[in-house]
Each structure stands twice: as structure tokens, then as C-alpha cells.
Specification:
mainly alpha; Transcription Termination Factor Rho, Rna-binding Domain, Chain A, Domain 1; 4 helices; 0% strand
């Protein structure tokens, strides 16, 4: 990370990469449900959505905010899953059921 933006979680993430990841993870229909933009619900494509989002700062902010919330949610889920796994392994060792 550069010194200019050390705390910016979007630093280095292009709008195209961000949008492609959201579409891959959620699909256009779900994305349109969370962020009601015409470019997501009416004949959606990466190209047309990028064109709209680059011209419309308020819409881009909505998409970036959704992306950040989604990433935080995924990180929390990974932490919870890891914690459950550690707890299960400890319980198995305690019960003598290693394996």
C-alpha cells in the first residue's frame, strides 16, 4: 500500500475488478435487489455498468459501500468458521476421539 492511502481498503482495487467480483459472487439479480440501479436490472453488462458508475459518483459510492460491507461479512464468517473448527478439534481431543 502506498503512504498516501494506508487505511483505504479500496486502494488498488479497480472499479472493474470490484464489479466483476460482486457479479460473480451475487449475480446481477441479487445485486439489483441490494442496489436498485437500472444498469444492474435492465439488460446488465459489465461495460454498461462501468460507464454509468464512472459518470455517477453517488451510484459508485453505493456499489463501493456494498462491496466493503460484503467483504467485512465474509471476513467475519471466515473467523467464525475457524473458531468453530478450533472448538470442535479441542472437544475431540478432550473426548479422546482424535481423527
Amino acid at each position: 500500500m502506498s503512504a498516501e492511502q494506508p487505511n483505504n481498503p479500496l486502494h488498488g482495487v479497480t472499479l472493474k475488478a470490484l464489479l466483476e467480483e460482486l457479479v460473480k459472487r451475487h449475480g446481477w439479480a441479487t445485486l439489483a435487489g441490494h442496489i436498485p440501479l437500472d444498469c444492474f436490472s435492465n439488460n446488465p453488462s459489465i461495460k454498461s455498468s462501468l460507464k454509468f458508475l464512472r459518470k455517477t459518483p453517488w451510484a459508485r459510492t453505493k456499489v463501493e459501500t456494498f462491496y466493503l460491507k460484503d467483504h467485512r461479512r465474509m471476513a467475519r464468517n471466515r473467523q467464525r468458521k475457524a473458531q468453530r473448527t478450533r472448538t470442535r478439534v479441542r472437544a475431540e481431543r478432550f473426548d479422546g476421539n482424535e481423527g
